[in-house]
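Quick log. Single chain, no ligands specified.
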Amino acid sequence: MSDYKNTRRTEAEVTFDGVDITKSIKPYLLSITYTDNEEGETDDLQIKIQDREGDWLQSWLDQVIDAAAGAGLKFSAAFTQKNWGNDSALPTGDFELDSVSAAGPPSTVTIKGTSLSFSAPIRQTKKSKAWESYTLSGIANEIAGANGLSCMFESANDPFYERVEQRKTSDSAFLAKLCKDAGISLKATDGQLVLFDQSKYEAQPPVRTIKRGKEGGYISYSLSVGSADQQYSSCRVSYTDPGSGKCIEGTYSDDSEKTGQCLEVSAKVANAGEAKALAEKRLRLHNKLTRLVTFTFPGTPALVAGVTVQLEDWGGWDGKYIVKQAVHAVSSTGGYTTKITARRCLGGY
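-> predicted structure:
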């Protein structure tokens, strides 16, 4: 008989409102799914449990629903691989209880949490305000603080605004627009707003090389190419100073794209260097979904949103990719799997 303590396995721990409930929930647990997004979308955590005896539906579920209707109940999970030679763990961070649903037969209950609740004031409360003499990082820090969040700013580019107006717009929508215009990515995760330059993440060395065939270690894959109108070979940013009439412009080209199309952008810039830097960021935003790949692997904690992978022997899809979404799932029947969706880095290699 094999020794369970020495077998390879993945253990999931669950914490609700600061209390470890792993042992209590284990007899009911069907699956835990953690979705980690690089930018633009909130992360989420879903716990699905069986309820054959109706314990959750008739008794415990009322307590959870009451908590969901209240404010700020947090829960989290962690996946830990045991006896893999180099044991590793993936903590999800805290999530705010967002919804509870029941379905059947067979009876199941799904508890869902989000990194930034849809009902949160930062997403719902519309405001009007004139921001004068602010940097983007200053605006982000003030918005984060006003909404009980911390802020991490990871970009060498920090635009300065003599005056920018927020008109009947939620804080999250206003900040998202500023970030998009500046070519900076925005993500909400584990109680903080993160603003970052994608080029910095794309420059990181790959955490894994994915070769076509048995050496790839994947369970399944899917590859796709976007339509021609999504692909540009270059981007030109131009601005005409209303005082002097001088035209300032800068162009950035991506040698990996051969469409010959140039993306034209009109934006306020101070000099040609700033125009070229913004052109690179705008080109990245427009071209980033040109080539997409999806792979499912046996559970791999190192594959999270924002890391890069290298594809080899995939023909036109060869190159360096950044993971835009990673879905980690542990189930009572299928073990632990990791599904990633990645886009090719600007420049391709």
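The longest strand covers residues 319-331.
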